[in-house]
Amino acid sequence: MKMLVKEVPIKDINEVIDLFDYCINNANGLASPYDDGEIENYLKTKRLYGAYYYEKLIGVGALLDINYDPIPIEKVFLRIIHKKTAMLVRYFVYPKYRNLGVMTKIQDRLINLANQFKYEVVIANAFSHNIASIKVIEKRLKLSYNLNVLGDDTLIFMLDLE
Ligand SMILES: CC(C)(COP(=O)(O)OP(=O)(O)OC[C@H]1O[C@@H](n2cnc3c(N)ncnc32)[C@H](O)[C@@H]1OP(=O)(O)O)[C@@H](O)C(=O)NCCC(=O)NCCS
């Protein structure tokens, strides 16, 4: 499919909000709600990449810095608390465009970005029943931990960039 993957400019914020809203409201709890300012923050820090099909934003993913206090539990379980780590988050594609490789392409761009930003490790989470998400993530990251929180299995994947 002919598409362009690029950093999403701030002017496209409303299209990003529409995509987040659509996917979160239709993901049967597989994606958590977003905080005030979250989307704007990704855009301002140039950490949100999107796929465009004839100018229409059809998919997004973001690179989240997780080197803050308190230390995120993923870093503790993976024993990487001292490593500069980024997390791949907010994988959303409109249903019509799924299973065509859109998120695979966005994910590769985000991993390149993590390299540019000199992260040492990239991680990603997926619920164990979110098959599509797992299939994309495991193309580049290795399953490294199975976290059981409140009965929901969360799989944690990791890629060493060093
Ligand atoms: C997860 C999501 C972003 C993936 O985007 P996508 O563009 O469809 O991903 P890709 O096409 O690059 O890859 C999907 C892979 O999963 C595979 N897949 C999807 N559903 C599958 C299933 N039920 N069984 C087996 N494989 C499956 C596809 O075949 C594809 O693998 P392939 O490239 O080897 O053929 C998309 O499904 C989505 O938006 N889901 C809803 C929101 C969500 O749950 N996001 C993640 C949590 S934040």
Indicate the overall shape: globular
- Give Rg in angstroms: 15 Å
Distance between the termini: 33 Å
Unreliable residue runs: none
CATH topology: Aminopeptidase
Number of domains as seen in the coordinates: 1
Question: CATH superfamily membership, which one?
Answer: Gcn5-related N-acetyltransferase (GNAT)
What is the strand tally? 7
Let me know the largest β-sheet: 7 strands, mixed
- What class, by secondary structure content? alpha+beta
CATH architecture: 3-Layer(aba) Sandwich
Just give the CATH class: Alpha Beta
Summarize the entry for a quick read.
The chain has 162 residues and is an alpha+beta fold. The chain contains five helices and seven strands, in the order E-H-H-E-E-H-E-H-E-H-E-E. The protein has a single domain (4-160), classed as 3-Layer(aba) Sandwich (Aminopeptidase), CATH 3.40.630.
Structural notes for this entry:
The protein is α+β, with helices and mostly antiparallel strands and 162 residues long. It has one domain (4-160): 3-Layer(aba) Sandwich (Aminopeptidase), CATH 3.40.630. The chain is 29% helix and 33% strand. The chain contains 5 helices and 7 strands, in the order E-H-H-E-E-H-E-H-E-H-E-E. It has helices spanning 13-25, 38-44, 73-77, 102-116, 131-137, and strands at 4-7, 48-53, 56-65, 85-93, 121-127, 142-149, 152-160. The longest helix is centred in the last third of the chain and has 15 residues, at 102-116. The chain is globular and about 45 Å long. The model has no long low-confidence stretch (mean pLDDT 94). The site of coenzyme A has 22 residues, from strand 4, helix 4 and helix 5. Residues 23, 27, 30-31, 59, 90-93, 98-104, 130-133, 135-136 line the site of coenzyme A.
